[in-house]
């Protein structure tokens, strides 16, 4: 077993405006203590109390789900969503590669620097538990299996979390990843997430790095050599960028920890990746023309600030009914718009095919995505829907 690589995380010179100026917090901070946050754009509108209680709202949809009435899961669902045992793209070390592990989890390995045995490895929003819930007994259960066991995942150098909902931040999975003796991974989160996770994982707080929107960190990794020689040093820049969502692990802490998207910039190969996490793009009410409502400007800002990205990992599910969830979750049409906004060369779909979270048919997201890509004039290889366990090179 190889010893874990040495990892150093530093705060590089600031390239983007800070989250506060002269002590005055910017618009997504709702208090001075950085413990309450909001979505500051016209693209975000709150659901009304009537929406929560209506027959198409949250509570009735949840009741229909527990009664087994909505949405229906085909009995042969596991054969309808392609799945393969991950190979992690092991035979192509000079390429950047991303492996979809279900829902919003991607395992990414950046190109191998000269003389190194591998590239820097980053895993996003890993959740391998059966349920995305505070309890292992109740709550949404997987209708597709993970393509491997969490113990089969190669040692990672960084764990990046978009926000603290149970379908994106899973303590048992994180505990298993950190137990890998070949890993000395550091964990990157939005503001006000680190203390909880440090306690829950019994992991020292210095291994966690809390970032505000437009903060950055430089990850320096001493990778194992390819021939038994000295370690090979390489650097990756991690940038925390805005997204349109919400946080909360209980009924009492909603909005109290920051949510985010992330940009990864490999300083060796100059490959750039955008991970959207979980996000809305616009708020669309019943009867509104969605092409005329305001859209979240954050994604176009990312495209402008980073000059485009090589690949974008974008959510396509948990959007129905649209009037209820458009403010927090992207539809396939939204994902195509985000793809263009961030100026991605390629996009990979996520946030579908794992748990029933909302009311749209479970197989609808990739079907709608295909139609939206055709409508937008995208080529077949520009916005892909990987199989579970499939590795895509970029």
UniProtKB/TrEMBL annotation:
Q: What GO terms fall under cellular component here? A: cytoplasm
| A GO molecular-function annotation | N-acylphosphatidylethanolamine-specific phospholipase D activity
Q: Which residues form the Metallo-beta-lactamase domain?
A: 121-352
**Could you tell me which Pfam families the record lists for this protein?**
Lactamase_B_2
Q: One GO BP annotation here?
A: N-acylethanolamine metabolic process
- Where does the record locate the signal sequence feature? none
Specify where the region named Disordered lies, as residue ranges.
1-22
What is the protein named? N-acyl-phosphatidylethanolamine-hydrolyzing phospholipase D
Q: What is the native source organism of this protein? A: Russula ochroleuca
